[in-house]
Amino acid sequence: MASFHWMQSCSERLYQWLLLAYPSEFRREFGQEMAQAFRDCCREEVRTGGTARLFPLWGTVFYDFMKSVSIEHFLTLKHIFLHDKEYSMLNAPLQLQVAQLTDIGRKRALNEDNLISVLPEDRSILDQKGALFVVADGMGGHAHGEIASQMAVTLIREAYYQDTANDIPTSLINAIKHANATIYQESQAKISSDDKEDPLKVGMGTTCVVMVVKDRTLYIANVGDSLAYLINDQEVKQLAEDHSWVAGQVRKGLMSEEEARTSDNRNIITRSLGTDAEVEVYLMTATDAQAGDTLVLCTDGLHGQISEAEMREIVTSYPPEESAKRLIEHANENGGPDNITAIVVKIS
């Protein structure tokens, strides 16, 4: 089983490197979806036929890769000569440059994080619902955490954009609660009657942090210890509420931030999707987004391994794609004990 995970992890890492051959604009728009599709195919091949099935899969992938890379570079050159605009929310009051990256870290056998960025091409949808960003950190044995986090990002995206109401905060909360109910039902189905008698046998769950950017307003909702930040030259502002046990103790004045960072209980969370039939969602709105601000959504595998000062130094010094890469590299250099995921959004 360990060799399966190793081969699977190596394949996913290699594919991430291959994606670097595509033009940067193409990677920003399609890279995450392509990586997720490859991950799903890779894991299905290993599950059904073992690691030997990876070789024919790579044969197909590499052929398609060479063909599509050539086409995309040709189109990029064409766009340059036609003076096309860069990847952004064209003609919007604020333009967004987006990069996203996830990494297995240095200690985990599986990557149970997931993420998604949605910038609607339909202008009417963009004007009404804005751009959506979601990061989720799954938990549960036997890869259940990976399933939970994937369900979270998919269900939240679908429910949010299918809700035609103009009330964004309500739409966000409803989408997250819908995801919670669906994951909870799936979790209960995966727990056998025997497992339910054993308190050590649990189903699956996930954290999530969600942000909608519409005009100059940010709508942030979260459950668990995946967080969001607004960063500029003056400050680092945490926009989500940390639902770890130690963060709760700090808010109550029962523990210092330094004690929280070194506590043995720092990985315990008090709220998550899928673990209960109902969930309380934290929500806040920020109306002061400005050109030059950078937004970061991340799992605790990132914010638990680097300081806010280090995060600010990186994202104010580099564009989003390089920032995401350096954030994850820095977390790995500090031990990489968990999966690491970040979405970096530069406002211009």
UniProtKB/TrEMBL annotation:
GO molecular function terms noted in the UniProt entry: protein serine/threonine phosphatase activity
PPM-type phosphatase domain boundaries: 97-347
Alphabetized CDD domains for the sequence: PP2Cc (cd00143)
Record's protein name: PPM-type phosphatase domain-containing protein
Organism this protein belongs to: Dictyobacter kobayashii
